[in-house]
């Protein structure tokens, strides 16, 4: 997993630029021996800015950028000339990224393509001595120093943005379903934890509409305490308004499996229980009507459910209709 190209949590050290100092200068030329103060202001220090980029889906490009320093502002100079502002540093991140400044706990969230937010402001430039001239002090010797920039470690955390999140134990059939209803090609194999990072796919729907589905790493009992893939999996569910629970038809106890999954969400974040839930019984091509009736009696009456088979494509059209209805109501 360490060698995966999907990086969703990273820490970097950031420092915004210091403001330039104001100038303490007096007008002097061949015509003016004792001119008044003409010291200019210092320039602003460079900001550190986060910018959303829809073409990025991981924080991998920041893996080796451990230190990010913005440029300092230029000092003011004579003739009331203001120093240049420090060059801003723009850090491009995928949509759904949350940056937390560890020093203050301040969080900055990026949700839209092209959206820019200042993560750390550069220090203000100091005022030159021209600002401090008064009728009683026409030759001020004082000019302000520039303000220092901010510095802190910053945690960048990516939470996948998708309309529907697929929730289920390892080998529940999530990756197979994603590969059938979208153009995504996740790894599929007959062993646990085939999916080690979120996989996204766009589901084409009627009248050229579409919605995004995320195949998330399989959950196990105790994931909220960090077992299995633990929080690497659970953090991404927070972004999905609809959760589709996949329970295989050959499960020993369908109701218990759903309750375990639901409890892990609750243990991680009780607010996840406020999302819209759907249940899909996967691999249902092996069921007859009698077995379906028996399984239906186990499932919660207040949560919509559907029987599907990714292999035979049984119930997939109805599943899309059900998901679209939940997303738009």
Question: Can you lay out the helices and strands and say which pair or pack?
Answer:
Blueprint: E1 9-15, E2 48-52, E3 67-69, E4 89-93, E5 97-101, E6 107-110, E7 116-120, E8 151-158, E9 164-167, H1 174-181, E10 199-204, E11 210-215, H2 231-237, E12 242-248, H3 254-268, E13 276-282, H4 289-298, E14 305-307, H5 316-328
Parallel strand pairs: 1-3, 2-4, 9-11, 9-12, 12-13, 13-14
Antiparallel strand pairs: 1-8, 2-7, 5-6, 5-8, 10-11
Describe the protein in words.
By secondary structure, the protein is an alpha/beta fold. The chain has two domains: 9-158, Spo0b-associated Gtp-binding Protein, Chain: A (Distorted Sandwich), CATH 2.70.210.12; 164-328, P-loop containing nucleotide triphosphate hydrolases (Rossmann fold), CATH 3.40.50.300. The chain is 16% helix and 23% strand. It is built from five helices and 14 strands. Strands 10-11-9-12-13-14 form a six-stranded mixed sheet, with helices on both faces. It has a five-stranded mixed sheet with strand order 3-1-8-5-6, with no helix packed on it. A three-stranded mixed sheet has the order 4-2-7, with no helix packed on it.
Short synopsis of the structure:
The protein has 329 residues and is an alpha/beta fold. The chain folds into two domains: 9-158, GTP1/OBG domain (Spo0b-associated Gtp-binding Protein, Chain: A, Distorted Sandwich), CATH 2.70.210; 164-328, P-loop containing nucleotide triphosphate hydrolases (Rossmann fold, 3-Layer(aba) Sandwich). Helix content is 16%, strand content 23%.
């Amino acid at each position: 997993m360490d060698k995966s190209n999907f990086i969703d949590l990273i820490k970097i050290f950031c420092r915004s630029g210091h403001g330039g100092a104001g100038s303490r200068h007096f007008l002097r030329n061949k015509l003016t021996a004792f001119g008044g103060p003409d010291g200019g202001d210092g320039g602003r220090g460079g900001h550190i800015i986060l910018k959303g980029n829809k073409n990025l889906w991981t924080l991998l490009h920041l893996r080796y950028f451990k230190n990010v320093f913005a440029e300092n502002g230029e000092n003011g100079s004579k003739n009331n000339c203001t120093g240049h502002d420090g060059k801003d540093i723009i850090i491009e991140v995928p949509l759904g990224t949350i940056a937390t400044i560890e020093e203050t706990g301040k969080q900055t969230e990026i949700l839209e393509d092209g959206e820019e937010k200042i993560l750390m402001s550069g220090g203000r430039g100091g005022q030159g001595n021209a600002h401090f001239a008064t009728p009683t002090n026409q030759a001020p010797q004082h000019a302000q120093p520039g303000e220092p920039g901010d510095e802190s470690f910053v945690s960048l955390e990516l939470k996948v943005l998708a309309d529907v999140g697929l929730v289920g134990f390892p080998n529940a059939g999530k990756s197979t379903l994603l590969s059938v209803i979208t153009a995504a090609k996740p790894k599929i194999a007959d062993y646990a934890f085939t999916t080690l990072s979120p996989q996204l796919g766009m589901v084409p729907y009627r009248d050229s509409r579409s919605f995004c589905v995320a195949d998330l790493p399989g959950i196990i009992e105790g994931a909220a305490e960090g077992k299995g893939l633990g929080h690497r999996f659970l953090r991404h569910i927070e972004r999905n308004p609809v959760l589709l629970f996949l329970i295989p038809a050959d499960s020993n106890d369908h109701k218990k499996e759903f309750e375990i999954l639901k409890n892990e969400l609750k243990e991680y974040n009780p607010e996840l229980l406020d999302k819209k839930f759907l249940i899909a019984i996967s691999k249902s091509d092996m069921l007859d009507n009698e077995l379906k009736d028996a399984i239906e009696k186990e499932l919660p009456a207040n949560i919509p459910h559907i029987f599907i088979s990714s292999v035979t494509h049984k119930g997939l059209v109805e599943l899309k209709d059900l998901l679209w209805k939940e997303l738009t109501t």
